[in-house]
């Protein structure tokens, strides 16, 4: 049953100008203008209705807003227009993801055949369901420390191979390749294609990340996608993907959407690039800039070395100009005289010490000779000792018949003891001393 038939059943006659052109035939078709006018007039009868939904896109053009609202319980969506005069009366902080109620009136534009709704009022209801869930997840991951800048790894200065995860034949892939090659022509990529929206986005991106992270040649991984509304970017806020990026051993760059797009992947990645083009500029250095830097460093080094050499030459000339170096002979002559005097003094002092030491040595030798047994022997005394080596100190030590050895000043001689000399008998100068030590005469 058509809307027109439903109106008739309700007992209401449709306006004459809204009656569909039923008189059209294949031979006499109606005009598009008449058809559009009929649709416009019929739609105009609906009036203004209040709807509830979530803002999924929000584009500002010449002061007017062109956006889309999504039903919070299904996938149904409508296009809305907010003219600048109305925009001044609604909250200024409305943005994608907001849960709102809006007064809308259906509009059918006859010239273009476009159908949309014009907003006359709009207000917040709260965050959209999806945005609310994402904010709760964002808070949880932040509390776990996954967004902590301290855990983010620095990107290599010049990666050997760049791993790229993006859609096949996408503009993002072309932008990354083109801009990276412009900066460093020898850059190498290892690209793994994955769906960047829809149900396949998360599992395919996870598989690509795992493959590139396990590749030892890959030094950095870029996940790139062009812009889109929050609905198409939801995969890059999936908790599984976010945790996988946090656990990766290779630095990861997030290049999702445009500057105003902000999936959770941006927060956990080691570097967030505002666009795929920006990612290409961040992962490789500019060869022109590096050459210019090398030139500057060379010029600076040349200047410093030249300054140092010039300074050292000036210092050397200053030293050479000093009198002591220009004519060193007087100084050497003065020093030679000092050396001669010191040598003479040393020689005199050494001679006196040697002379004193000689006299002291002679005195000690004389004292030692006076105390030596040899001096006693030289005076005519002898030392008697038995064959067992015992020195005879008492006549009892050498009874008659004892073989003795007598040591004199020059040599030794053998003797036989005849016993003790009687008291009063002549025994030469050794009388009364027994056989131990007696003068030999």
UniProtKB/TrEMBL annotation:
Record field: catalytic activity: Exonucleolytic cleavage in either 5'- to 3'- or 3'- to 5'-direction to yield nucleoside 5'-phosphates
Principal localisation: cytoplasm
EC annotation from Swiss-Prot or TrEMBL: 3.1.11.6
Intracellular or extracellular location(s): Cytoplasm
Keywords on record: Cytoplasm, Exonuclease, Hydrolase, Nuclease
InterPro entries linked to this entry: Exonuc_VII_L, Exonuc_VII_lsu_C, OB-fold_nuc-bd_dom
Domain Exonuclease VII large subunit C-terminal: 146-367
Domain OB-fold nucleic acid binding: 31-122
One protein family per Pfam: tRNA_anti_2
Residue span of region Disordered: 1-27, 417-441
CDD domains noted in UniProt: ExoVII_LU_OBF
Coiled-coil parts of chain: none
NCBIfam families listed in its UniProt record: xseA
General function of this protein: Bidirectionally degrades single-stranded DNA into large acid-insoluble oligonucleotides, which are then degraded further into small acid-soluble oligonucleotides.
Similarity annotation: Belongs to the XseA family.
Subunit structure: Heterooligomer composed of large and small subunits.
Protein name: Exodeoxyribonuclease 7 large subunit
Organism, as annotated: Microbacterium panaciterrae
């Amino acid at each position: 049953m058509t809307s027109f038939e439903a109106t008739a059943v309700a007992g209401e006659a449709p306006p004459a100008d809204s009656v569909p052109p039923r008189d059209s035939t294949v031979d006499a078709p109606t005009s598009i203008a008449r058809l559009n006018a009929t649709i416009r007039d019929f739609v105009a009868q609906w009036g203004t209705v209040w709807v509830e939904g979530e803002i999924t896109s929000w584009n500002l053009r010449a002061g007017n807003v062109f956006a889309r609202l999504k039903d919070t319980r299904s996938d149904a969506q409508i296009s809305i227009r907010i003219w600048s005069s109305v925009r001044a009366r609604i909250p200024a902080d409305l943005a994608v993801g907001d849960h709102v109620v809006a007064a809308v009136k259906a509009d059918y534009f006859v010239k273009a055949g476009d159908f949309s709704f014009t907003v006359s009022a709009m207000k917040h209801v709260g965050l959209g369901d999806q945005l609310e869930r994402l904010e709760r997840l964002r808070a949880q991951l932040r509390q776990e420390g996954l967004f902590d800048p301290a855990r983010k790894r620095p990107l290599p200065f010049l990666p050997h191979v760049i791993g790229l995860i993006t859609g096949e034949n996408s503009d993002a892939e072309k932008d990354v390749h083109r801009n990276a090659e412009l900066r460093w022509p020898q850059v190498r990529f290892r690209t793994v294609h994955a769906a960047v929206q829809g149900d396949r986005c998360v599992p395919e991106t996870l598989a690509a990340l795992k493959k590139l992270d396990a590749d030892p040649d890959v030094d950095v991984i870029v996940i790139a996608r062009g812009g889109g509304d929050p609905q198409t970017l939801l995969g890059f806020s999936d908790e599984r993907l976010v945790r996988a990026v946090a656990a990766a051993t290779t630095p990861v760059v997030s290049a999702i959407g445009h500057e105003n797009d902000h999936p959770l992947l941006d927060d956990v990645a080691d570097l967030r690039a505002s666009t795929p083009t920006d990612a290409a500029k961040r992962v490789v250095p500019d060869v022109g800039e590096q050459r210019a830097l090398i030139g500057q460093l060379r010029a600076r080094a040349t200047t410093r070395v030249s300054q140092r050499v010039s300074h050292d030459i000036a210092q050397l000339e200053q030293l050479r100009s000093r009198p002591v170096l220009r004519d060193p002979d007087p100084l050497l002559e003065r020093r030679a005289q000092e050396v001669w005097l010191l040598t003479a003094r040393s020689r005199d002092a050494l001679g006196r010490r040697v002379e004193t030491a000689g006299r002291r040595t002679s005195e000690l030798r004389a004292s030692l000779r006076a105390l030596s047994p040899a001096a006693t022997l030289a005076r005519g005394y002898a030392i008697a000792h038995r064959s067992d080596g015992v020195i005879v100190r008492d006549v009892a030590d050498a009874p008659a018949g004892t073989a003795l050895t007598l040591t004199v000043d020059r040599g030794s001689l053998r003797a036989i003891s005849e016993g003790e000399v009687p008291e009063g008998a002549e025994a030469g100068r050794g009388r009364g001393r027994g056989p131990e030590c007696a003068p030999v005469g």
